[in-house]
Amino acid sequence: MLTRTVLAASAAALLASATGLSAVAASTDIRPAHPAAAPAAVKPCAESALTVKATSSGQDHVLRLSVKNHSSRACLVDRVPLVTYGDLDGAAVPFPLSGSSAYTLDAGKTAHAAVRSLSASGDSDARSVGYIEVAANPEHHGKKFTAASLSEPGGLRVWAPVTTLWQPTRNLADEALAESDGAGVLKV
After folding, report:
1. Chain-centre distance of CA 141, in angstroms?
2. Distance CA 72, CA 70 (A)
3. CA-CA distances (angstroms) from residue 10 to 1, 2, 13, 14?
4. Which of 12, 82, 107, 128 makes an SS bond possible with 135, Cβ 3.0 to 4.6 Å?
5. Which residues, in sequence order, are CB contacts of 97 under 8 Å at separation 6+?
6. What pLDDT score was predicted for residue 148?
7. Are the beta carbons of 63 and 56 closer than 8 angstroms?
8. CA atoms within 13 A on the CB side of 188
9. 18 in Cβ contact with 37 (< 8 Å)
10. CB-CB neighbours of 118 under 10 Å
11. CA distances for 84 relative to 88, 117, 159, angstroms
């Protein structure tokens, strides 16, 4: 025990001489008066802090989606945009296949996704709807976009829709959608 004490005292003295402190100050456990605050946990985005948009892409049956965080803090949206078509059951399937997880959306930033509503224009099983709804989190009500506002005044045709995950840029969202084979079947 005496050896450890002598070694500790010697180490403190060496540190003190190197830093200009006294040996007593160097061997004393100095702690701040107030512990540093832990970083705040990132919380889900309030729907009112987000602007969700859907626009025509110029490609048949492909829409571009975006969500912008207008709050002063980073917040979480679901990794996959929730895209539903009219009163039809179900939602667009994510590509690549993904479980539910969070995507951090920094303050003032925008995330992008792309969705293909129809696998082939001649698909006889396709339905036509007058609107879609897009939500950044499943708990949100989402925003409704009419077919006419998406350059489809006759209705949006849909069958086996596919959506990308949120991406930091529009180009990455377009590239992710292009990785699906375009026939409504996901490549694995």
Report:
1. 18
2. 7
3. 14, 12, 5, 6
4. 82
5. 186, 188
6. 94
7. yes
8. 4
9. no
10. 21
11. 7, 10, 12
Residue linked to tokens 């990794």: 79
Say whether 127 sits in a helix, a strand or coil: strand
- Which residue carries 């969700």 as its tokens? 52
Euclidean distance between CA atoms 41 and 24, whole angstroms = 39
Residue-wise pLDDT tens digits, 97-156: 776 689 999 999 999 999 999 865 566 778 899 999 999 999 999 999 999 999 998 899
Rounding to the nearest 10 degrees, give the CA dihedral for residues 138, 110, 50, 60: -60
| Cα–Cα distance, 154 to 167 (Å, whole number) | 30
Q: How deeply is 120 buried, as exposed, middle or buried, from its count of CB atoms within 10 A (0-12, 13-18, 19+)?
A: middle
